[in-house]
Amino acid sequence: MDVLQAAKTVQAALEDKLGEDIKILDLQGLSNIADYFVIASGKNVNHLRAMANEVEQKMYQAGIKLHHSEGYSSGTWILLDFGQVLVHLFNKEERNFYSLEHVWGDAKSVE
After folding, report:
1. Local structure of 72: helix, strand or coil
2. What angle do CA 83, 85, 90 make, to 5 degrees?
3. Rounded CA gap, 64 and 62, in Å?
4. Which residues contact 83 (CB under 8 A, 6 or more apart)?
5. Residue 4: per-residue pLDDT
6. pLDDT score, position 64
7. Which domain holds residue 91?
């Protein structure tokens, strides 16, 4: 599975759990942190955790293991690191505050 397909697997998992405002940012050539960011919002702590669990499960089924995660206990911003795909799950307030789409404004949005 190539990296874009992995990002789209994340997107599909988030759609299955009714993630809101899902965006894939293509960071290739802009950063060596990752090739893609997948960003989504959730309604509350339980929704964010359910989204994170679904993403981890779908990626594992696709043969991609989670390298690292952060924020699961606080549930306001959950980061899932799958190597070249980083997943950022926010509550709406945190997403507006950190505004990753604007910070990485040079990144192309993937449809």
Report:
1. coil
2. 120
3. 6
4. 34, 64, 67
5. 95
6. 96
7. 3-110
Do 80 and 46 form a contact (C-beta atoms < 8 A)? no
Helix or strand (DSSP H, E) at 25: strand 20-26
H-type alpha helices, 37-91:
45-61
Q: How many domains does the chain have?
A: 1
Global pTM exceeds 0.70: yes
Please answer whether residues 104 and 25 qualify as being in contact, where contact means their C-beta atoms are separated by less than 8 angstroms.
yes
Tokens of 110: 């993937």
**Size of the chain in residues:** 111
Task: Tell me the two tokens of residue 72.
Answer: 């699961």
CATH at residue 40? 3.30.460.10
Mean pLDDT by runs of 10 across the 111 residues of the chain is 94 98 95 95 96 97 96 93 97 94 89 81
Task: Give the tokens for residue 2.
Answer: 């190539």
Residues 59 and 67: beta-carbon distance below 8 Å: no
Coil, strand, or helix at residue 62?
A: coil
The pLDDT score that the predictor gives to residue 75 is 83
Which residue in the block uniquely carries the two structure tokens 């404004």?
A: 105
